[in-house]
Specification:
Rossmann fold; six-stranded parallel β-sheet; 38% helix; binds flavin mononucleotide; NAD(P)H-dep_reductase; NAD; NADP; EC 1.6.5.2
Length: 191
């Protein structure tokens, strides 16, 4: 049997009960149950220092940054859970993208998908800024299906810990994973 596709899951929210992080946890669960052939690992970005290139010493990075970069290097594809802050992606997520982009850029050529939960339009405006950044750092995003969710409309989709509890939304998330899997295999020339 072929090795599973390694997907790194990154949440742009550092909140303990973050709904966006809940989407990553749910993707991990789905990868262990209904979506075959993928493995999702949550990679924490909360310990990354704020970008400051003075912290780079002769091409080496602070230990936390190096560990993060190695996780990306080892990934087949990336799943971003991207909260929308003031019509854009969150500062922690931009910080992580910037650290990964320092030469050699670790994002280059990776397939990726974006999911989000937010207010009014479900965080969708953050997708477009993230996609724009992806042009320069050479990420390749799936286009369909799209996934953005208003987390404030009843009935509740998350519990108080930020865990996704809505079966219909889980099904949508499942289709994101299936699409990311197919696109990853396609880019790797395996299908
Ligand atoms: C500084 C700040 C700015 C925000 N701006 C937006 C926004 O522009 N659009 C939106 O839909 N939600 C906005 N929100 C709401 C968050 O996206 C929303 O609370 C989201 O669910 C937080 O995600 P989390 O549960 O993963 O932490 C903002 C929240 C904060 C703290």
């Amino acid at each position: 049997m072929a090795a599973p596709i390694k997907i790194v899951g990154i949440s742009g929210s550092l909140r303990k009960a973050s709904n966006n992080s809940g989407l990553i946890r749910s993707a991990i669960e789905l990868s262990k149950t209904v979506v075959e052939g993928v493995e999702v690992e949550y990679v924490d970005i909360s310990n990354l220092p704020l970008l400051n290139t003075d912290l780079e010493k002769e091409g080496t990075f602070p230990a936390e940054v190096e560990a993060f970069r190695q996780k990306i290097v080892g990934a087949d594809s990336i799943l971003f859970a991207s909260p929308e802050n003031n019509y854009s992606l969150s500062a922690p997520l931009k910080n992580a993208l910037d650290w990964g982009s320092r030469p050699p850029n670790v994002w280059g050529g990776k397939p990726a998908a974006i999911v989000s939960v937010g207010g009014g339009h479900g965080g969708v405006k953050s997708h477009y800024h993230l996609r724009q950044i992806g042009v320069f750092i050479d990420l390749h995003f799936i286009n369909k299906p799209e996934f953005f969710l208003n987390g404030f409309l009843p009935p509740a989709k998350f519990n108080s810990n930020g865990d996704l509890i809505d079966e219909e939304v889980k099904d949508k998330l499942k289709h994101i994973l299936l699409s990311l899997k197919a696109f990853t295999l396609q880019l790797q020339g395996k299908i």
